[in-house]
Amino acid sequence: MTIKKLAFGVALFVVLMVLWGTQRLASGDPGLPPLEITTVDRGEVSQRIVAYGSLQPVERVEVGSQVSGIVDEIYVDFNSRVQRGDVIARIDPSTFEAAVSSAEAELESAEATLELARLQWQRVQELREARIVPQSDVDEARASLRQAESSVQVRRHALDRAVRELERCTILAPADGIVISRSVDPGQTVAASLSAPVLFEIVADLTQMHIHASVSEADIGMVSEGQAVRFVVDAHRDRELEGEVVQVRNAPIMEDNVVHYETIIAVNNDEGFLKPGMTAEVSIIAEERADVVRVRNTALRARIPDDIRPADPEETGDALVYRIVDRELVATAVWTGLNDGIHTEIVEGLDAGDQLAIGLSLIPEGQRNRRSLFSGDQAQY
Fold first, then answer.
1. What is the pLDDT of residues 305-320, one digit of tens each?
2. Exposed/middle/buried for 229, CB within 10 Å: 0-12, 13-18, 19+?
3. For the segment 189-241, what is each residue's pLDDT rounded down to a tens digit?
4. Residue-wise pLDDT tens digits, 230-240
5. Does an H or E element contain 228, and which?
6. Quick check: helix, strand or coil at residue 84?
7. What is the DSSP secondary-structure string of 330-373?
């Protein structure tokens, strides 16, 4: 079976060569064989840094509770619009109302004690002037008055604290915005200990958003504030959106043993189809040039057989290409500029409209639009 397969392959190769030779003889063209050709044109060439990140609101406020208790009522839900000062939830105030009543009673008691201490002080002063009581009684009355005054101050502060705790049972919106997260339900117990539990998340404005992109240390040197950005999101792959680098943070982030730096990109979301948390594929334009002479990168690595390859030019540039002039190949040195991975800028050596050879093609010119067993990519040199 192996010998038969080998024989079949050799026979197939011979048939292809015969067909190619017949085509050349039939066309009467002793010049170049069929070639893959590309044309030099003018257009945009940009050097881009590719990174990935997520969309986040510019301002995000976490609303918590400073007091513990049972959530009595909730007045907002997901996507609710709120204004600063709006009541968005209320915690059962009964315990705190009782604390306020107790503080008020203690303050009244302290004020009564103060009034009695003042009367005693006045009486002792009168008796002292008449030399009826000793100096020690005067000192004791003075100290009792000061203690009563201090006690009133303490009770007033306790009442203020109790009132403030009661006020905190009513949770207000700290800013204008939209509620994007709600973490509690009516009847749920909230426990405020060392840190306030987060009940809601409010974003101020979703028409302006940020992309938090992660740029590797190998590329961060080419990123700076003010650079243009183009990006796409998975939900809208057919749309390329624009943004701008507004901040390059210096704090390193280690991911998979590679150092990255967080880069903040400002984007416009007037249409409202971008949502927090979406993954963005970002292209930061490090350098861009418009309306320049450019050529596809395949032309800079052309594969020309030795029997038709022309002699190299005397000049040596950055690269060597093969122009087609009067159905002959001419080796030409070129000087290149920016490279975006698909096109390379040609600074000198070529003009728009020049045709360049990339390599041989086994597809005859008259059959370029026909498909056959040998017309795929495997039939190209």
1. 888 888 888 888 899 9
2. buried
3. 888 876 778 899 999 888 899 999 999 999 999 999 999 999 999 999 999 99
4. 999 999 999 99
5. strand 228-233
6. coil
7. EEEEEEEEEE-SSEEEEEES--TT-EEEEEEBSS-GGGTT---T
* Pairwise CA distance, residues 376 & 363, whole Å: 9
Give the long-range contacts of residues 189-197, CB within 8 A, separation 24 or more. 189/68, 189/69, 189/70, 189/71, 190/65, 190/67, 190/68, 190/69, 190/70, 190/71, 190/91, 191/68, 192/64, 192/65, 192/66, 192/67, 192/68, 193/68, 195/64, 196/64, 196/65, 196/66, 197/64, 197/65
Domain 63-92+169-203 has CATH 2.40.50.100: yes
Choosing among 1.10.760.10, 3.40.960.10, 3.40.50.11460, 1.10.287.470, the CATH entry for 94-167 is 1.10.287.470
What token pair was written down for 179? 């509620």
Q: Packing angle between helix 94-129 and helix 135-167, nearest 10 degrees?
A: 160
Burial of 221 (0-12, 13-18, 19+ CB in 10 A): exposed
